[in-house]
Specification:
CATH superfamily of the largest domain: Thiamin diphosphate (ThDP)-binding fold, Pyr/PP domains
CATH architecture of the largest domain: 3-Layer(aba) Sandwich
Structural class: alpha/beta
Number of domains: 3
Bound molecules: the ligand C/C(NCc1cnc(C)nc1N)=C(/S)[C@H](O)COP(=O)(O)OP(=O)(O)O
Number of helices: 20
Helix content: 25-40%
CATH class of the largest domain: Alpha Beta
Distance between the termini: 67 Å
Largest sheet: 7 strands, mixed
Length: 558
């Protein structure tokens, strides 16, 4: 039984649970795109450019578990590199497939378009090797199935992007048909002796502690076991905090939830709770400079148990040979049961009083109205900028999710990522919070939201510039040309479309715009929120000065 290389790839993408793949056409991938359409397991969705294509795939992968994208050689793939870097840094398995030169051109001395103008076509794969967990350059149809399977299997296991390069003359070449998908999906069994030893050492750690707290970090997205965390918290009877990049990873209506731990910009009570505990179970944490507020919020290693994707470190010993999911699942049933120390839940952030309808729109009022829009079936995508700080202070009902990109932090990511999330989870409400500066990098993807009739509610925070940068280190470079953001939607609708562009300068206008957005179910609604530049969250100001201080440390004199 045979198929073609392109249809083998297409069948595998469908078998691992994708319903869509993202693409931008180019002459090195047109036949491959035809093969994907012919096999039909996944719907082909187009992006305005390859960077946005990659960001959309990452957003899709966050909601769906994995994603795929198809670009053309060099001019396409090199544009996508920033997005693949994001998927790598944020632990999202994106399969990036690039068309490539005809196999007869290799070694021929031919100079080809869309290349560096020499006869070495290997540079693209070399670049991808640094930001993927597997890089497969297909040069024969016979070997293509092994290479495609290896790339997909490794991406799913490592929770990282993988790269596949398919020459334009092999996409429709015959190759063997795929076998069962189980070989790509099965997780290695835990090494039981190692897991038992890790649990035993964890028990010793817990018995020696009076005050235990769970700290959930963003690498837990890759664990696939977020739904087990409440059972673990119940077993340990401890309070739970999350790091800013893991906002929404633990249900905030759970009695043990105590807010976001972010050093001195934590939600009220969370910093004291974590830093006074003598047993902190850190699950998938990322302690980078932003998360530690410029290296100021650091925990005592004596008091921490570190559970990460590579293994467990506790009481000065490292345990590997099992996944973090297998560890948490076992711990939730075998940890020494501890009496609940969780007090009655309280609002983790002070309530914001509603502003009068005629009042000038403020950041606080905007955040308050957005929070009121979030229900248990909502995904809030928050862009780098003050949107991070507005998202972190939201009170989330159980089931609500927040998606942010706090490790990679490439502005513009959120617009395509929100599109990807909306395609992956059409039954959820999708809200996007994005600043004017970030929006200008990837704005055209809103046209694709119009095209695919995705009812994303976009809060475009127009504070006239790069405010987070202004707070870190000001200069003329932080000020941008203003756009008529609401007016853009008419351009994106063109002959047809259900996009809606609205502008809010007062609390009442915002409330009315939100009602219109909720009723617009056949396209995106962009609400331009007009704010004073100086009107940002207090936490941004506090955090920005500390990060600026870290950035400006003098070089060490040896
Ligand atoms: C310019 C930059 N970061 C530098 C940067 C530059 N280029 C890329 C791709 N990614 C980056 N993070 C950042 S965070 C701006 O303040 C974003 O401005 P905006 O979207 O308007 O948000 P705020 O006003 O809330 O800051």
């Amino acid at each position: 039984m045979t198929t073609t290389v392109g249809q083998y790839l297409s069948a595998r993408l469908g078998q691992i649970g994708l319903k869509h793949h993202f693409a931008v056409a180019g002459d090195f991938n047109l036949v491959l795109l035809d093969e994907l359409l012919a096999e039909g397991s996944t719907r082909q969705v187009y992006s305005c450019n390859e960077l946005n294509c990659g960001y959309s795939a990452e957003g899709y992968g966050r909601a769906n578990g994995a994603a795929a994208m198809v670009v053309t050689f060099s001019v396409g793939a090199l544009s996508a590199i920033n997005a693949i870097g994001s998927a790598y840094a944020e632990n999202v398995p994106v399969i990036i497939v690039s068309g490539a030169p005809n196999t007869n051109d290799h070694g021929s001395g031919h100079l080809l378009h869309h290349t560096l103008g020499n006869t070495d076509y290997g540079y693209q794969a070399e670049m991808m090797r640094h930001i993927t967990c597997a890089t497969e350059v297909v040069l024969s149809a016979a070997n293509a199935p092994h290479q495609i399977d290896n790339a997909i299997r490794t991406a799913l296991r490592e929770r990282k992007p993988a790269y596949i390069e398919i020459p334009c003359n092999l996409a429709n070449a015959a190759c063997p048909a795929p076998g069962p998908v189980d070989s790509l999906l099965s997780e290695p069994a835990a090494d039981q002796a190692s897991l038992d030893a890790a649990l035993e050492e964890t028990g010793r750690f817990l018995y020696a502690r009076d005050k235990v707290v769970l700290l959930v970090g963003s690498r837990m997205r890759a664990s696939g076991i977020l739904d087990l965390l409440p059972a673990l918290a119940d077993r340990l009877g401890c309070a739970v905090t999350v790091m800013a990049a893991a906002k929404g990873f633990f249900p905030e209506d759970h009695p043990a939830y105590r807010g976001v731990y972010w050093g001195e910009v934590s939600t009220p009570g969370a910093q004291e709770l974590v830093e006074s505990a003598d047993g902190i179970l850190c699950l998938g944490p990322v302690f980078n400079d932003y998360a530690t507020v410029g290296w100021r919020a650091t925990l005592n290693p004596e008091n921490t148990l570190l559970a990460d994707l590579q293994g467990i470190t506790v009481n000065g010993r490292v345990f590997t040979g099992f996944s973090i999911g297998q560890y948490v699942e076992a711990l939730a049933v075998r940890a020494p049961r501890r009496a609940s120390s969780a007090e009655t839940p309280r609002r983790s952030v002070p309530a914001i009083p509603p502003a009068a309808r005629g009042a000038r729109l403020s950041n606080d009022e905007m955040a308050r109205q957005i929070n009121a829009l979030i229900d248990g079936n909502t995904t809030l995508t928050a862009e780098t900028g003050d949107s991070w700080f507005n998202a972190v202070r939201m009170e989330l009902p159980g089931g609500a999710r927040v998606e942010s990109e706090m490790q990679w932090g490439s502005i513009g990511w959120s617009v395509p990522a929100a599109l990807g999330g909306a395609l992956a989870a059409p039954d959820r409400r999708h809200i996007l919070m994005v600043g004017d500066g970030s929006f200008q990098l990837t704005a055209q993807e809103v046209a694709q939201m119009v095209r695919y009739e995705l009812p994303v509610i976009i809060f475009l925070v127009n504070n006239r510039g790069y405010v987070i940068e202004i707070k870190i280190h000001d200069g003329p470079y932080n000020y941008i040309k203003n756009w008529d953001y609401a007016g853009l939607i008419a351009a994106f609708n063109a002959e047809d479309g259900h996009g809606l562009g609205l502008r809010a300068t007062t609390a009442g206008e915002l409330a009315a715009a939100i009602e219109q957005a909720k009723a617009n179910t056949r396209g995106p609604t962009l609400i331009e929120c007009d704010l004073d530049r100086a009107d940002c969250t207090e936490t941004l100001v506090k955090w920005g000065t500390k990060v600026a201080a870290a950035n400006s440390r003098a070089p060490k004199v040896n």
